[in-house]
Amino acid sequence: xxxxxxxxxxxxxxxxxxxxxxxxxxxxxxxxxxxxxxxxxxxxxxxxxxxxxxxxxxxxxxxxxxxxxxxxxxxxxxxxxxxxxxxxxxxxxxxxxxxxxxxxxxxxxxxxxxxxxxx
Length: 119
Prior knowledge:
Blueprint: E1 2-6, H1 12-16, H2 19-29, E2 38-42, E3 53-55, E4 58-60, E5 63-65, E6 68-75, E7 78-85, E8 94-98, H3 103-106, E9 114-118
Antiparallel strand pairs: 1-2, 1-9, 2-8, 3-6, 4-5, 6-7, 6-9, 7-8
């Protein structure tokens, strides 16, 4: 699949730094993600029927955090995961990508750059 890098809302770092998510990502994906996502607008809807891994929602103090589905992918040849939060308002063509490294830096990407996503 082909896609283009797009700006996000800048909120993912807060969520990805929560211990409830970090622990599950390490257990289920084998890595603790960089505290931020790379947003990719695909040329077609992401095939949500692909095999996925469930990350369960949890509570932390008074706050409740929703679950998400993760999909093993590679982006421009680098192993990563696409995440689809249960509470997301993103269209089916928009994915958030996590990896152990800052993907923008590691792959030298900026908004508008084209990328290849392999599921």
